[in-house]
Amino acid sequence: MSNDNTQRTVTVSIQRFDPDVDKKPHMQDYQVEMTKGMTILDALHEIKTHQDGSVTYRRSCRHGICGSCAMLINGRNTLACKTPLIDEVGHKNRVTLGPLPYLPIIKDMVVDRTTFWEQYLRVKPWLIPPDDIPEKEFRMSKEEVNALHDAESCIMCGACYSSCTVIGLNKHYVGPHALLKAFMRVMDPRDEAPGQRLADLDGADGVYRCHTVFNCIDACPKGLNPTQAIETLRKLAQKRKKFETTRRKRQQHLHEPIPAK
User: Fold this and answer.
1) Whole-prediction pTM value?
2) Do both 242 and 188 map to the same domain?
3) What is the CATH number of the domain that holds 188?
4) Which of 5, 87, 132, 195 is the one with CA 20 to 30 A from 235?
């Protein structure tokens, strides 16, 4: 896309749907004067504040941290607050916005994430510490931290979940967002229950349901790799007992300083 920031009028085409009055979704166009540095979220604010207060969407932090403003932008799931408008405007000066797919629409771009959060809670995303808690701190090696592949930076925006074609077919599938969190806990040497976690994910709607299409990787605004995490969980599930034994041995030394190399 061009980096020309010259001010010009662009058409923002928004999918509208109010279940109280509409039988089905429809597109509505708005004209926005694009200025230097304007994001998709800025354009939506301009529309809602000065043109049509009924346009509905979620937003919060404006810094790509909360994940609230994830939506469909020109057919791609991403964050409105981190997406420059100029990067999405085509040759016809138009950008198209809609709600995240595969989730019930509450109104316009606001979707019902109930199932999304239910699947998240299903994997018990919190740390289950061992009984023997050190007086000061757990000691993780650099290699152990690197093995998490930055999974802790997931902001639960739903972009990966609603890009997954399996979700479109089977709402019982755990989903890439929850499996990424499960991966983070399984790989964390401080966690007491990796074996139980792997057993819980070893069913028809768990790690083996993934079709490895890679949509979740393309959609993630944080550059994470849920597919890699799912593949790792698959491999560990096949040697769960051995992995549990290794974890118990490691936890006997979590309070000790990491030897210098």
Assistant:
1) 0.91
2) yes
3) 1.10.1060.10
4) 132
